[in-house]
Design goal:
Length: about 110
Amino acid sequence: MEQVGVKDNYRLVQNLKSAGCFIVCILLTLVCLVPLYLMIVNACRGHNAILQSPVSLIPGSNFVENIPEEIKISSPDTTGYSVRNLKYMAKFAAAYSGGEFVQQPVAQIP
């Protein structure tokens, strides 16, 4: 009888270890995702909103307006990334997202 109890206790301890590892993994995931969320949310805010309150949990609507400034900072030699061009790029991508860009059938003839 004692060996059955020992086996049951061993299984219980193993299950608790597995559950503990699972909980630790979930907590580590949350610890990694919360700062990422905060970075994305605060990248979407305008300059005046950042001056009023440095950190916010509510995303702003200035994401497209902030992209050209970030591109100029990261690579100053590139041009053509104005707010207007980015909006045109988004419209183009939405209009032609259904099909693939392939060669014309005439170009595929050997």
